[in-house]
Design goal:
- It is a single chain.
- The protein is mostly beta strands.
- Helices cover about 0% and strands about 55% of the residues.
- A hairpin with a 4-residue loop joins strand 7 and strand 8.
- The termini are far apart.
- The mean pLDDT is about 95.
Length: about 120
């Protein structure tokens, strides 16, 4: 089992920055990848960024060049640095982790970008 706890969401003006954190505990050695999804009201959930255990990254086109996913193995924490935020980045951001057969999710953190 893996437990994920997000933090760092909040309200920010357009053009601002936020850093989300996802603290992992449990059997994290079994994980193959971690990442972030987001969901805006009335919209489908969107995969924002992923980070594999081999440190390869992937970003959605909507955030490429503005968001950076990273991790600190010593702290068992994954981060999503979000720069140049836009109102369309508003939503609930959830971190996830995947093992061979399992998926784990955090509770989500709200990000609101005002224009």
């Amino acid at each position: 089992q893996v437990q994920l706890v997000e933090s760092g969401g909040g309200l920010v003006q357009a053009g601002g920055s936020l850093r989300l954190s996802c603290a992992a505990s449990g059997s994290i050695g079994s994980l193959n990848a971690m990442g972030w999804f987001r969901q805006a009201p009335g919209k489908q959930r969107e995969l924002v960024a992923t980070l594999t255990k081999l440190n390869s990254t992937m970003y959605s086109d909507s955030v490429k060049g503005r968001f950076t996913i990273s991790n600190d193995n010593a702290k068992n924490t994954m981060y999503l640095r979000m720069n140049s935020l836009k109102p369309e980045d508003t939503g609930v951001y959830s971190c996830y982790a995947e093992g061979l057969l399992e998926e784990y999710w955090g509770q989500g953190t709200q990000v609101t970008v005002s224009s």
